[in-house]
């Protein structure tokens, strides 16, 4: 607790993405549109699944949770980034910075665990289809979702504790557009090598372990597809390929950022933008463009809405 008493920094200053005024305005317009589409796309998926009884299955239950996490994940960083693009001096209070850091890791870790659970769900559905109804029951699905939120919370608390236990007495300039553990601990008024290694070990272990489990699951699935019919292989490959694209888009940046020591690369900001801004938008696009059931359900909901409107006009 003594180190906490040494903290005199009350706010942090972001350097942002660029100091070019024209680029800032272009980024503001493009990222505003991206964020709006992210919200609309993921909300549309959640509403479609909720209002379509035939989509009340474990796979779509997990997909709706993925959309919810994507909404939360992007909302942690994007609104503050958009505000900063309009301001000459981009600041955030110490407490808000810690809160942003906590929720960033909470939702990112929850998404990692959820993608792993979705891989397990596909493994059971494709490799042991006869046992699927008894294995992936409603109770089991709810328990898995509860477990992923619990795991995400524990991970985030560890990251946050390792960050706030350090003293911060200046400087207070963060070379980023949001608060994350690596750039924040660089500003601590003490040696952070051990803390940095603990943080990398924690995040890296989760990312690499879940990624390895995902690769193993899909390797087994691909081998088992040889026994499936042509139609079964087509449907399974369509679903699994969409999931694999999401895994690559999300795990790639996470592994790049959180599994190396405390270093700084110029490409870090670009990678961070991709996984905090772009990936949450790509998730609904991938699942709606590649999933016939979701597209069909959305079409039916649209037709029902049109019929509802006509009946009252």
Automatic annotation (TrEMBL):
Listed InterPro entries: GPCR_Rhodpsn, GPCR_Rhodpsn_7TM, Olfact_rcpt, Olfactory_Receptors
A GO term for molecular function: olfactory receptor activity
Entry membrane topology: Multi-pass membrane protein
Subcellular location: Cell membrane
UniProt keyword list: Cell membrane, G-protein coupled receptor, Membrane, Olfaction, Receptor, Sensory transduction, Transducer, Transmembrane, Transmembrane helix
Transmembrane regions listed in the UniProt entry: 26-52, 98-120, 140-158, 206-225, 237-258, 270-289
A GO-annotated cellular component: plasma membrane
Superkingdom classification of source: Eukaryota
G-protein coupled receptors family 1 profile domain mapped to chain residues: 41-287
A matching Pfam family: 7tm_4
Main location: membrane
The family this protein is said to belong to: Belongs to the G-protein coupled receptor 1 family.
Protein's recorded name: Olfactory receptor
Species: Heterocephalus glaber
């Amino acid at each position: 607790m003594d180190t906490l008493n040494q903290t005199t920094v009350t706010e942090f200053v972001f350097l942002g993405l660029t100091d070019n005024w024209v680029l800032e305005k272009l980024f503001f317009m493009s990222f505003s549109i991206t964020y709006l589409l992210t919200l609309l796309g993921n909300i549309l998926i959640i509403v479609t699944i909720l209002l379509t009884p035939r989509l009340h299955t474990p796979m779509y239950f997990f997909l709706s949770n993925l959309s919810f996490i994507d909404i939360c994940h992007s909302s942690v960083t994007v609104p503050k980034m958009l505000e900063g693009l309009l301001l000459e001096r981009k600041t955030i209070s110490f407490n808000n910075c810690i809160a942003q850091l906590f929720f960033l890791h909470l939702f990112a870790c929850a998404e990692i665990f959820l993608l792993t659970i979705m891989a397990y769900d596909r493994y059971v559905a494709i490799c042991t289809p006869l046992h699927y109804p008894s294995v992936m029951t409603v109770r089991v699905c709810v328990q898995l979702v509860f477990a992923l939120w619990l795991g995400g919370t524990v991970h985030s608390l560890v990251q946050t504790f390792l960050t706030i236990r350090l003293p911060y007495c200046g400087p207070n300039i963060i070379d980023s557009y949001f608060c994350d553990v690596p750039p924040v601990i660089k500003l601590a008024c003490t040696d952070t090598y051990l803390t940095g290694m603990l943080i990398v070990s924690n995040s890296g272990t989760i990312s690499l372990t879940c990624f390895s489990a995902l690769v193993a699951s899909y390797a087994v699935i691909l081998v088992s597809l040889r026994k499936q019919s042509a139609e079964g292989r087509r449907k399974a490959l369509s679903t699994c390929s969409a999931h694999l694209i999401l895994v690559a888009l999300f795990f790639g940046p996470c592994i790049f950022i959180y599994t190396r020591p405390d270093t700084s690369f110029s490409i870090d900001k670009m990678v961070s933008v991709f996984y905090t801004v772009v990936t949450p938008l790509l998730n609904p696009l991938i699942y709606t463009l590649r999933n016939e059931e979701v597209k069909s359900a959305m079409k039916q909901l649209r037709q029902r809405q049109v019929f509802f409107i006509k009946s009252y006009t």
